[in-house]
Design a protein that fits this description.
Shape: globular
CATH class of the largest domain: Alpha Beta
Strand content: 15-25%
CATH architecture of the largest domain: Alpha-Beta Complex
Radius of gyration: 20 Å
Largest sheet: 9 strands, mixed
CATH superfamily of the largest domain: Spore Coat Polysaccharide Biosynthesis Protein SpsA, Chain A
Distance between the termini: 38 Å
Number of helices: 13
Number of strands: 11
Structural class: alpha/beta
Order of helices and strands: EHEHEHEEHEEHEHHEHHHHHHEE
CATH topology of the largest domain: Spore Coat Polysaccharide Biosynthesis Protein SpsA, Chain A
C-alpha cells in the first residue's frame, strides 16, 4: 500500500447541496490513501451546509464560505488557490469516490515519467433516487490525447487526479463557461502533458437532474463557446468542426428550438459537405420535428430517471 506519495487537495464546491454533501465527504474520508486535504468552497449556501460541516471532526477538512454566489468555476479556482497539495482533484458535492481511488492513481503516477500530468479512471453513472448503477464507462485513451479531447470530453471532473503544476502552466478553469469548464481545462492541459489511466471504476456520477450538465441551455452556450475557443484548431479539421456544429444543432432541437438547430445543421454541412448525417438531420427537422426529437433522444442521449445526459 502506498503510504506517502504526495499530498492530494480535494476541491469540493457546493451551493445548497447539504442533502448530498455528506456522502461526497464520506467517500473521501474513506480513502485508503490518507494524505489529503478536503477544501469545501461553500458558494453562499442558504441551507444547513454549515451545520453539516461542523459535525465533522477531521483537521483535513477546510471550510470556506463565500458571502456571495460566485459560480462553480470561480469556486473551483478559489479552491486551487487555497490548495497545498502536490496533486489536485475535484469532487462535486453530489458525487462519490470509491475507497481505493487515490491510492491506485498515485501508484500509477509514481510509475510514470514526468511527461504525464493527469491520470483518470473509469467511472459509473448511478441513479440519484435509488443509488443503482446503470452504466459503466471504462477508460481507453493513453498518452497524447489532445486530438481526442478536441473531439469530446473523456471523463467527468472527479475522475482525474492532476499534478498541481499543470494549473500553474496551463491556467485555471474558465469561469465564464456555464458548463463544460472541466472539458476546456483538460484540452489545455493535454497540449503540454500526457494522460494515463487506471482501468478500474473508481468514481460514481450520481444523476438527479440538479446538475449543470443537465441544464440544456447552459450546455448549449458552453458548447458554442468551446467551438469558438478552439476554432483555429477546428478549422484545420473540417470534419470535426462539422461534428461539433451538428451536435450543437441537435441540442437546440432537443431544447425545442429547431429553427436555431437548422442554422447549425447548415453550418455543419458548409464545414464538411460530405457529412451526410447533417443532411439527414436537417431534413428531419424540416419535415418531422416530432420524429426528429425522438430519434435524437433515443440514440444520442443517455436518460436516467427521466434526466437527459447530453453528448
Amino acid at each position: 500500500m502506498l503510504s506517502n506519495g504526495g499530498k492530494i487537495s480535494v476541491i469540493v464546491p457546493t451551493h445548497n447541496r447539504a442533502h448530498f454533501l455528506g456522502k461526497a465527504i464520506d467517500s473521501v474520508l474513506s480513502q485508503t490513501y490518507e494524505n489529503f486535504e478536503i477544501i469545501i468552497i461553500d458558494d453562499n449556501s442558504k441551507d444547513n451546509t454549515t451545520d453539516l460541516l461542523e459535525s465533522y471532526n477531521d483537521k483535513r477538512i477546510k471550510y470556506v464560505k463565500n458571502n456571495e454566489n460566485r459560480g462553480c468555476g470561480r469556486a473551483r479556482n478559489q479552491g486551487i488557490e487555497l490548495a497545498r497539495g502536490d496533486y489536485i482533484t475535484f469532487l462535486d458535492s453530489d458525487d462519490e469516490l470509491f475507497s481505493t481511488k487515490f491510492e491506485k492513481q498515485l501508484e500509477k503516477f509514481h510509475l510514470l515519467p514526468s511527461a504525464f500530468g493527469l491520470i483518470y479512471c473509469g467511472f459509473c453513472y448511478a441513479s440519484g433516487k435509488t443509488g443503482k448503477i446503470v452504466k459503466y464507462i471504462s477508460p481507453e485513451l493513453y498518452g497524447d490525447v489532445y486530438n481526442n479531447l478536441l473531439e469530446r470530453n473523456l471523463f467527468p471532473i472527479h475522475a482525474p487526479i492532476v499534478k498541481r503544476e499543470c494549473f500553474q502552466r496551463c491556467g485555471m478553469l474558465d469561469p465564464t463557461l456555464p458548463a463544460c469548464e472541466d472539458w476546456d481545462i483538460w484540452i489545455r492541459i493535454a497540449r503540454y502533458y500526457e494522460f494515463a489511466f487506471v482501468p478500474d471504476i473508481l468514481a460514481k456520477y450520481n444523476i438527479h437532474g440538479e446538475q449543470k450538465s443537465t441544464e440544456m441551455e447552459s450546455v448549449i452556450i458552453a458548447r458554442e463557446r468551446i467551438v469558438e475557443k478552439y476554432r483555429s484548431e477546428l478549422n484545420k479539421r473540417p470534419s470535426l468542426l462539422a461534428k461539433h456544429l451538428k451536435e450543437i444543432a441537435s441540442l437546440y432541437c432537443l431544447n425545442n428550438n429547431p429553427a436555431e438547430g437548422r442554422k447549425y445543421f447548415i453550418a455543419s454541412i458548409r464545414s464538411h459537405p460530405l457529412n451526410y448525417h447533417s443532411y439527414l438531420h436537417l431534413g428531419l427537422s424540416l419535415f418531422s420535428t416530432r420524429v426528429h426529437h425522438k430519434i435524437i433522444s433515443n440514440y444520442s442521449v443517455l436518460t436516467i430517471d427521466k434526466v437527459k445526459l447530453t453528448f
